[in-house]
Amino acid sequence: MKRLRAVALLMLACWTLPACALELYGIPADDIALWAAPVEGKGVFAAYRAEQAVNPASTMKLLTGWSALTRLTPDYRWHSELVSAAPLRHGVLQGDLYWIGSGDPRFANRDLQGMLRTLRARGIERIQGRLLLDKRAFSRIGSASDFGGDVGRVFMVDPDTHLTGLKVAWLRFFNDGNGARVTLDPPLAGVRLSSALSDGGEGPCDDVRRSVSIQVENEQVSVSGALPRSCDGAQSYVNVLDHDQYAAQAFAALWRELGGRGPAASGRGTAPPEARVLASHDSDPLLVALADINKYSNNTMARALFLTLGRVAGGSGDTVADAERAVRETLAEAGISAAPLALENGAGLSRQERVSARLLGEVLRSAARGPYAGEFLASLPIAAADGTLKKRFANLGPRLRLKTGTLDGVRALAGYWQAADGRRLAIVAIVNSPRAAELVPALDRVVSDLVTRFDPAAGVPPEYNLPVPPSLPVEPR
Predict the structure, then answer these.
(1) 105 and 49 within one domain
(2) Are residues 86 and 187 in the same domain?
(3) Is the domain of 305 the same as that of 226?
(4) Global pTM?
(5) Same structural domain for residues 244 and 297?
(6) Does residue 87 sit in the same domain as residue 137?
(7) Residues 324-383 pLDDT 10s
(8) In CATH, what number is assigned to the domain containing residue 129?
(9) Pairing of the two strands 92-93 and 126-127
C-alpha cells in the first residue's frame, strides 16, 4: 500500500514538474514538500506536496524577516535609554537610575559601556539609588516548548527587553609562560569561576573546547584540562544567570571599570514620566540584525525581532499575539494565503510552527519583487561561502543563496538561485522525517536538480553526488 501511494505521488509530480521527472534520491515520498517558481514569471516551476502543513524549522525566520523589513523598513533601529528623575549633586546621582530596554537583539556589552561613558561624561561618579530595569517593551516573550532537554544551551536563550551580549559570558584563555589560566569577561559578581587548568604543551588549538572541559551549574563555571600553548588568547562562551541578573551585573562590572560607584541594588521598575534622559543608544539598522539572524540562524535574535513586530504594531497589549497579527496582516496585504500557518515564536525553534512550501515560496517571491529585495537577499547564507551554508553546494557557488532549517526530524532549505542571464528561481524544499539528518545529501541533490532544470547552464554534472557533511548539527538552527 505504501509503495502504491509513493507511485501515485510520483505520478502527480510528473504533472507538475518539468520533463515529467522527480528523483527523490531515497527520500520517502511522504516526507518532502517542495515549491519553486521564477521570480520574474507568473507560473510555478515545480510543486510537490506544496500545500502540506510542514514544520519549517529555521526557514520560518524568512517569514519573520520579510514581515519586519516590510513593516519596520531596513533602517529601523532599537532605542535604549538610561533615565532618572533624581538630582545630580557633586557627582552623585541621588536616586534611582532606570534602564529602559527596547528588545534590541544585538545590544552588546560595548553598547552598554558607551552609555555608561556618557554617564561619566555628565559628571556622575556614584549612583546612590538603585538600577531599575524598565521592561515595558514586551508584555510577554512567548515560548519555545518541548525543548526541555536543551535548557541551558546557548541557542535556547530567550529574548528579553534587556538582552545584553546574548546573555553569554566569555571565557578568555591564556597560556603565555605564566601558567594556564582563564578569566571571565565581563567579570560578573554573581558568577563563580573555578579553574583547574594545566599546561598542555605544544599542539593545535582549532577549538579550545576540544582541549578543556567547561561545566556550568547555576552560577558556578568550572574549567579543567590541559590547555595547549597555542590556545593562548582563545575564547569560548557560557550561558549564565537570568536576564535581569546578567543585565544588572554587566552594568555593575562595566561601571566599576569606568571608575563608577554604586548602584546600591537592582530590580525592576517603571521610569516616571518626569525622568530625564541621561544616556541613550541607537542600534545598528534592522538589516544588520537580519543578516545575523539568517546567515547564522540565531534563534534568540529572531524571536526578539518577532516580538518587536508585536511591540511596534501594538493593539491588544499582548506582544506575542500582536506579532502574529502583524505577520498575518503582512501576508494578507501581499495577497498571500496564510493557510496552513501556525506560529509560536517566529524563529522556527518550535515543534508547533507550520507552513506550507507554497506559503514560504510566495513569501520569497514577494520579497524578491519588493522594495527591499536587495536587503533581504543579502541576509541569506551564500552557498559554499558563509553562514550555515558554508560547507554545502560547492558545485553551485554564490549564485545560490539559501536559508537552512535544522531540527530533530526536520531539514529545510529556502532561498534563491540566480542564473547567469539574471533570471531568478525561488526555491523551498522541506523534509519532515525521523531520518531527516541522514537525508541531507539527498535534499541537497533535489535542490541541485531543480536548479539545473531551471538553468541548464548551471553545469552540475549528472554523476554529481554530494558527500555527507562531516558532522551534521543536532542543535536547532
Answers:
(1) no
(2) yes
(3) no
(4) 0.90
(5) no
(6) yes
(7) 999 999 999 999 999 999 999 999 999 999 999 999 999 999 999 999 999 999 999 999
(8) 3.50.80.20
(9) parallel
Does residue 477 form part of some domain?
A: no
Q: What is the number of structural domains in the chain?
A: 2
CA distance 410 to 58: 10
Q: What is the DSSP string of 340-376?
A: T-B-SSSSS--SS-BB-HHHHHHHHHHHHHSTTHHHH
List Cα–Cα distances, 372 to 68, 104, 377, 423, in angstroms.
11, 21, 9, 18
Q: Which of 238, 254, 284 is the last residue of a domain?
A: 284
In this structure, what C-alpha cell is assigned to residue 93? 546621582
Residue 192, SS3 per DSSP: strand
Where in the sequence is the domain holding 332, given as residue range(s)? 2-75+287-458
Q: Grid coordinates representing 133?
A: 530595569
pLDDT (tens digit, 9 = 90+) per residue, 172-197? 999 998 899 999 999 999 999 999 99
The kind and range of the H/E element at 198 are strand 192-199
Report in angstroms the alpha-carbon separations of 140 from 158, 219, 345, 463: 11, 25, 11, 52
Q: Is residue 470 part of a domain?
A: no
Distance CA 318, CA 242 (A): 22
Of 452, 377, 356, 436, nearest to 34 by C-alpha is 356
Residue 51 vs residues 17, 60, 354, 362, 409: alpha-carbon distances, Å:
15, 16, 11, 12, 19
Q: In what order do the strands lie in the sheet with 88-89?
A: 88-89, 92-93, 126-127
